[in-house]
Amino acid sequence: MDIAGHPTLRLYLVCPTGEITQIWYHQSEVQSNISRGNLEFGIIFSTAGYCEPGNSIQGEILRVGEMIIGSLSVP
């Protein structure tokens, strides 16, 4: 996924039930913060409950959330 025009890595927190309740976006395998110019930040996309049954980032929620994250830009 691109954030502010550059590729980033997605790391999924997958619960024992198979549900994804968090997605962490990283610059690379060795750098967790995302750097764009003079700006450094982190993004975590998360559900309300940690590994609670029925809470999962998928379908429409995933698509809309990633559209918002992907639309970020750095002037």
Report the count of strand segments.
Answer: 7
Strand order of the largest sheet: 3-4-7
C-alpha-based Rg, rounded? 13 Å
Count of the domains: 1
Order of H and E elements: EEEEEEEH
The profile of the biggest β sheet is: 3 strands, antiparallel
Provide the structure class.
Answer: alpha+beta
Helical amount among residues, as a percent range?
10-25%
Q: Estimate what percentage of residues fall within beta strands.
A: 35-45%
**Alpha plus pi helix count:** 1
* Overall average residue pLDDT: 88
Defining key terms:
single chain; three-stranded antiparallel beta sheet; two-stranded antiparallel sheet; 16% helix; elongated
Structural write-up:
This protein is α+β, with helices and mostly antiparallel strands. The protein has one domain. Helix content is 16%, strand content 36%. The chain has 1 helix and 7 strands. The protein has one helix at 59-70, and strands at residues 2-3, 6-7, 9-14, 20-26, 34-36, 39-41, 43-46. The protein has a 3-stranded antiparallel beta sheet with strand order 3-4-7, with no helix packed on it. It has a two-stranded antiparallel ribbon with strand order 1-2. The radius of gyration is 13 Å and the shape is elongated. The two termini are 19 Å apart. The model has no long low-confidence stretch (mean pLDDT 88).
